[in-house]
Design a protein that fits this description.
It is built from 28 helices and 13 strands. By secondary structure, the protein is α+β, with helices and mostly antiparallel strands.
């Protein structure tokens, strides 16, 4: 176990964060109402919105579009737009600049997690026809692309979206469909750089979301049995995936009623109406959709082999024909018996809602850049969502550019920080120093264990509310006292802090991931992912030079004056014996011990664990 003083690291992270830290016709049988739950803000609220929009336009006009002026600036951008710094990325940023790099990333072909999983499955079956690939191979593909994938921005955005539009392999129904989970990640990478309206539809119709939030096989009401439509997805598509609990001004502030209270985005009647929309959807089927297909995904014992990730089909015989009233829109009884038509009205309504831009925009800022963006920053991103400059609403590429190129993102300030979640800490380490997978499979494995691992595994959130909440305020912390949210601190406590340091100590010393014995006739007898510290070992005799290099590889932006000195002092305490002609092994071991100490101490520091 680590020394007792490491258990105070959670408090140090808190300190570091605080320190830096009437209706009109809309279609047959469909009406909209201006007096709906969308509500009206106060006059003051409208003025705030107008000022926010002006501020947003000004911020966008002033956005930094040129090349980074320093190493730290390039490194900060890389930590926000990718899974971590490496020399190739920094060189490219210095060569072409931020905006051109983003455009270049947008143009890269997507790396497919599903195809990677299928290739791994084929290889496993070739070696032994009995086993097959499972959820471990989904994680292998995630880590392979996070560390080595060329389409870093796409993969980073997909990971961010996986924490907004959550499915989880912790749920057995989802975990038993690893190929489909890999396809889900592909969908987020594709639609996440498309249009939000398309993204929301793909999320809503994906069978893994249908299983996770129980609207696959959701049926219309039955008065005889007392059955009512499942409301799970109808609620979460509003609360988590689009408009949030309260109506928002363009700058992310709550809209207020005449009494100064936040206005709810929706109520129980809206949930019931939306739940009726999400009835009648089930598996894609190779034959004409029928009852057998709806219930089991097969007809005449024939199933679509891709049904686990093909968009769900609408089965009219199971779809509600009752009135569907939600968010000021009414689909009249019997007017829209086609599930796809009802869905189109619902998703168009959500996409057009004024809260979507600030609600989704703020969370993307939090996942990529900082925990506490200013109202002007949120308003700038919301403005890009509302209009990409060519009159298109919901253009996710415009939104991502607005997130990453906003002056607040590019300027170091007292609140331009976020706690680096455990998955991103490991990714940053693996990218900062060259690593090689002995098997080529990047066998990091499941890292759920809090006391001995990361306490977090991609695509294994404990609930639809993700690993942490966007508005989480850490109790008894300086960040909380300062009125700052710190979502990732929801994962930080004494056990997770010690567990992370112990885990990274072993990773630095012995390599990362699962143990390989003999693979394909090659004897490894070590962990799958091994570091190359040759450049650091060359500097091991000079503690200050070694520490300077390690700090530059792992930390961007603000670094405390004492960090380098403290780490260098610890490194210097490890004595390298003088050569005597027969003690080279001792010398090599001492140099490696110095490198290990330097890397681990920086990885454990608040300066690394808080992304600035």
């Amino acid at each position: 176990m680590v020394h007792r003083h490491w258990t105070g690291l959670a408090a140090a992270v808190c300190l570091a964060l605080a320190a830096c830290g009437g209706g009109e016709t809309a279609g047959p049988g469909v009406t909209t109402s201006t007096s709906s739950s969308a509500g009206n803000g106060t006059a003051a609220g409208e003025r705030v919105r107008a000022l926010a929009v002006v501020s947003a336009k000004a911020a966008l006009a002033a956005a930094v579009l040129d090349k980074p002026a320093s190493f730290d600036e390039a490194a900060r951008f890389a930590s926000q737009a990718s899974f971590g710094l490496n020399d190739a990325l920094l060189a490219r940023l210095n060569q072409i600049g931020y905006s051109a790099w983003i455009d270049e990333q947008f143009a890269l072909p997507a790396t497919s997690h599903r195809l990677t999983w299928e290739a791994k499955d084929a290889a496993i079956r070739l070696a032994d026809p009995n086993p097959n690939a499972d959820d471990e191979q989904v994680l292998e593909s995630f880590w392979q692309q996070a560390v080595t994938g060329p389409d870093q921005l796409r993969q980073r955005v997909a990971y961010a979206l996986s924490q907004i539009f959550v499915i989880s392999m912790v749920d057995g129904n989802v975990g038993n469909e690893p190929r489909a989970v890999a396809a889900w990640l592909d969908m987020l990478g594709d639609k996440g750089l498309g249009n939000y309206r398309q993204l929301l539809e793909s999320v809503s119709l994906h069978p893994m979301m249908g299983l996770y939030l129980s609207h696959l096989r959701n049926q219309k009401a039955n008065a005889r049995t007392g059955r009512v439509p499942d409301e799970n997805y109808g609620r979460e598509v509003m609360q988590l995936f689009s408009i949030g609990l309260v109506q928002l001004n363009a700058d992310g502030s709550p809209r207020l009623d005449a009494n100064g209270r936040p206005i709810d985005s929706y109520g129980p009647a809206d949930i019931s109406g939306m739940a009726r929309v999400f009835t009648g959807f089930s598996w894609a089927c190779p034959a004409h959709p029928n009852n057998s297909c709806f219930y089991s995904g097969s007809s005449n014992n024939v199933s679509d082999p891709d049904r686990s990730f093909k968009p769900m089909l609408g089965y009219p015989q199971f779809h509600s024909t009752e009135e569907k009233h939600f968010l000021g829109v009414t689909i009249a009884p019997q007017a829209v018996a086609d599930p796809a038509a009802s869905l189109r009205v619902a998703l168009d309504t959500l996409h057009a809602h004024p809260s979507v831009g600030p609600f989704i925009g703020r969370q993307l800022i939090q996942r990529l850049v900082m925990s506490n963006p200013s109202p002007a920053y949120i308003a700038a991103v919301a403005a890009a969502f509302a209009n990409n400059g060519a009159g298109v609403r919901g253009d996710m590429k415009a939104v991502i550019k607005a997130v990453l190129l906003n002056p607040e993102a590019r300027r170091l300030s007292s609140t331009s920080a976020k706690v680096r979640e455990p998955v991103l800490r490991l990714a940053a380490y693996l990218r900062a120093f060259p690593h090689r997978s002995d098997t080529g499979n990047w066998r990091v494995g499941t890292t759920d264990a809090v006391a001995s691992s990361l306490g977090q595994t991609p695509l294994r959130a404990p609930s639809v509310f993700n690993f942490y909440r966007p508005g989480y305020v850490s109790p008894n912390s300086l960040s909380g006292a300062a009125g700052l949210v710190a979502p990732e601190l929801q994962l930080v406590h004494e056990t997770s802090t010690a567990g992370y340091v112990n885990y990274m100590r072993d990773n630095v010393a012995s390599g990362v991931g699962q143990y390989n014995g003999t693979v394909g006739g090659v004897v490894f007898n070590r962990r799958d992912i091994q570091p190359d510290f040759s450049a650091e070992l060359a500097l091991a005799s000079n503690a200050n030079a070694l520490v300077s290099r390690v700090v530059s590889k792992l930390i961007s932006g603000y670094v405390t004056r004492s960090l380098a000195a403290t780490v260098a002092g610890a490194v210097s305490s490890i004595t390298i014996p003088a050569p005597n002609g027969n003690n080279q092994a001792q010398i090599d071991n001492a140099k490696r011990a110095r490198v290990n100490a330097a890397v681990l101490l920086v990885l454990a520091s608040p300066e690394f664990q808080v992304q600035k």
